[in-house]
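#structure-requests
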Amino acid sequence: MTLSNVLNNFLTENLDALKNQGLYNEIDPVEGPNGAKINVRGSELINLSSNNYLGLATNPALKQIAKDAVDKYGVGAGAVRTINGTLDLHVRLEQKLAEFKGTEAAISYQSGFNCNMAAISAVMDKNDAILSDQLNHASIIDGCRLSKAKIIPFNHSDMEDLRAKAKQATESGQYNKVMVITDGVFSMDGDIAKLPEIVEIAKEFDLITYVDDAHGSGVTGKGKGTVKHFGLEKEIDFQIGTLSKAIGVVGGYVAGKKNLIDWLKVRSRPFLFSTALPPGDVAAITAAVQMIIDSTELHDKLWENGDYLKAGLSKLGFDIGASETPITPCIIGDEKLTQTFSKRLFEEGVYAKSIVFPTVPKGTGRVRNMPTADHTKEMLDEAIAIYEKVGKELGVIN
């Protein structure tokens, strides 16, 4: 196959540059289920890179529920939601999600990324402004760009900066609507948004409130999420979530007032123009949400394991930042050293991927560790011992 010379030169030069800077990410196919241990390149490794927080991706009961739904409904929904792709399964899922989030209604999408592309652009336009935390997820940033609203970033979790910019934006008279958007839990550092303060500012300046709780649902608020953690279910306009992390399957959702969900059903493009989530996935998701509603057992085990890993790594002298959740970054700094650190962990038996620019700012490379409810103390002890060995070998710790 012959590429355009212009394209070929662009790709070659830029790929080489990324590799030289330690910014090129190698993708490792996982040979089997994505559990507490995984097989990669023929090696069994302790898995600290998954977002399968509660271990539900491999839950035997959920696998059987998905198989049964495939037998009854088939492997696909067969159409977009607005034609005849809405199965009774989708209706039950959205009712369950609304119950889960304490809202009037909910709508499901094919991914969490799609949620932000869909919901922001369905409500905000070129005559509006969006106040966005500087560390918000890429999907939020892209959703804001798609809306064509004026994007006004505020310093990460800096409430004084948010208030000043909210005041300036609303008093300028330039915008019809102003929205404030934040992640509930920031996935690279594990810190929690200051939602009570954000709500206060939103009330003062009549801001629309939007919380993407992809990494909080199933993790904070006894599993119900960050909005529930602060008791703010009646104060947040948009609650966004993913169905691929703690829920363990795939997809995303928006929860809120019924009129908001009704609007998204007629104006959000991914809902209108993409085939609905497959039946097996929808059935498994609904059951997984019910499990989280019914019991905090998996949530409690996740936090127990998170606290255990944090304590072990911190005692060794690793910089684990200021995480308030089981997300446990080991901040190395230099991108090339971060890549080397991750590779040596792999060689010793731990799968923990390096995270570098553009996912995080330059000079803040880290290995992001995510213990799950499925890890045993023996696995975590082994991982901590490997961290100690590699950390001392590379001069990251003394």
